[in-house]
Amino acid sequence: MSEAAAELQDHHVATQNEKLVIGASSLGTVFEWYDFYLYGLLLSFVSSNFLTGLNETTSFIFALLIFAAGFAVRPFGALVFGRIGDLVGRKNTFLVTMAIMGLSTFAVGLLPSYGTIGIAAPIILVSLRLLQGLALGGEYGGAATYVAEHAPTHKRGLYTSWIQTTATLGLFAALLVVIGVRTAMGEEAFAAWGWRLPFLISIVLLGLSIWIRLKLNESPVFLKMKEEGKTSKAPLTEAFGQWSNLKLVLIALFGAVVGQAVVWYTGQFYALFFLEKTLRVDGATANILIAIALALGTPFFVFFGWLSDRIGRKPIILAGCAIAAASYFPLFAALTTAANPALALAQAQSPVSITANPAECSFQFDPVGKNKFDGSSCDIAKAFLAKQGVAYRNVPLPADGSVAEVHIGGVGIPAVNPAGLDPAAKKAAIAAFQDKTRLALEVAGYPAKADPARIDKVMVVAILFVLVLLVTMVYGPIAAMLVEIFPSRIRYTSMSLPYHIGNGWFGGFLPATAFAMVAATGDIYYGLWYPVVAASACVVIGLFLLPETRERSIDD
Q1: For residue 8, is pLDDT > 60?
Q2: pLDDT tens string 303-358
Q3: What is the pLDDT of residue 91?
Q4: Cα–Cα distance for residue pair 515/359, rounded to 1 Å
Q5: Which of 61, 396, 404, 491 is the least crowded, having the fewest Cβ atoms under 10 Å away?
């Protein structure tokens, strides 16, 4: 065989191996995200099966634990599995995380309800969710590191961008499966037992993913370190106990990942939340519109990853954050007009206000939707209007015991003073207040739901596509950047922690925090200040402190 032919054959083998690495790593991560998102999409069914036998307070606590376990523990998963990945290798570590994720999800589909096994049901459910959050904390860093360490320097952004598609593809897959099963079975059968099927399907996906990943070899960078005796003996100490590396962790977190996280969660999750909860678009329609936008936008993850190999990671990520910060308010205002024009018209013609003592008004942070906020007349009024998607103006009352009052046009409706009322009387009084307020809103032209016939679906999809496009700008290149920032001996540990703090905490709690900001101010767009401020701060920090990493060697 000639030298040229041998080189060509070696190139072909290398190319085939790289495709297997990208495909196996990405496919497995898609399935992990699919598992993770099922909880959010099926939360109401999970709650009705596992929490209904609990009293109100205990149910709220367990619902909060189920929610928080998925997001709050991700950084701890990054520490646990990041350390293992730097000690024993990338491949075996993300095989373990995948098995934990898949088996935990499958187990939810088999878990008996509260009516069958009592308090054990929510306890086991929280434990499974905890395992999922830990596994996801270890999966992403392993997959991104593994792919990057197989990639040629000039294609690192392109190759790792396939990993970046996985979160969106996982959400897309979960949406399609849930929509498909619900449509095929009908709502009654789905509510009774069919909601378990999307969880049970994960065992098939798990088997396929593990079979594919078992064909992979260990990362060549890790093997080289191991042969040379350069692997870290104490990854956590090196990564976070030495200022030289801890400084890089903080710069990566606040100069890139926080901005990426809030743009990602705003474009994919808060947009869906806003459509359903604020604009009152029915859930099935909102899911379909989001799914279309995701399908149109997903290829741009790869495009921006490819582009970052040519012009750099930093300018694309920071440009995406800057554009998002500048455009969110007009984009969401346009979304209101396109999705619920009757609501936009009513807000312009018949503004609503609440007169209340500010000291009685809570900050209604409720990540699981279980808190009724019925401890004061102000909370009762604001909680109802916020859940109806009605914007309102706050008018302060003196602290003289006056009851909060809702004003709609020329109509004033006193809220309920819950002091001294027994639970049954309070419930009846709140229901009467809500009925009066709902009737006054209807008379003023506020729609109870978005009219499907008046939704400008093309415009809604176009706006959602722009939001997803911004997600692809910030998210497409970030895996390559995180891999390139940190030294190989502690790379898995170092990159995983800022990624999951940014996405698990700053991003994961964004919808609940933004909604609480809306409830506090009455401005349905006020919650957007959360991502706008975070993304803007990231741009400033990133401009001055974030290094450009495109040309760096990652073998050291």
Answers
A1: no
A2: 999 999 999 999 999 999 999 999 999 999 999 999 999 999 998 889 999 998 88
A3: 75
A4: 20
A5: 396
Looking at 3.40.50.150, 3.40.50.12780, 1.20.1250.20, 1.10.3720.10, the CATH number of the domain 1-229 comes to 1.20.1250.20
The model's confidence at residue 369, banded by pLDDT at 50, 70 and 90, is low
- Say how far apart CA 313 and CA 311 lie, in whole Å: 7
| Nearest Cα to Cα of residue 501 among 333, 158, 258 | 258
What's the CA gap between 371 and 418, in Å, rounded? Answer: 16
State which amino acid sits at residue 12.
H
Chain region(s) in the chain for CATH 3.40.30.10:
349-443
Burial of 500 (0-12, 13-18, 19+ CB in 10 A): buried
Which part of the chain is CATH 1.20.1250.20? 1-229, 246-340+450-547
C-alpha triplet 56, 62, 68: angle, nearest 5°: 135
Fold of 349-443: Glutaredoxin (3.40.30)
Query: Distance between CA atoms of 339 and 335, rounded to whole angstroms?
Result: 6
Other CB atoms within a 10 A radius of the CB of residue 249 amount to 20
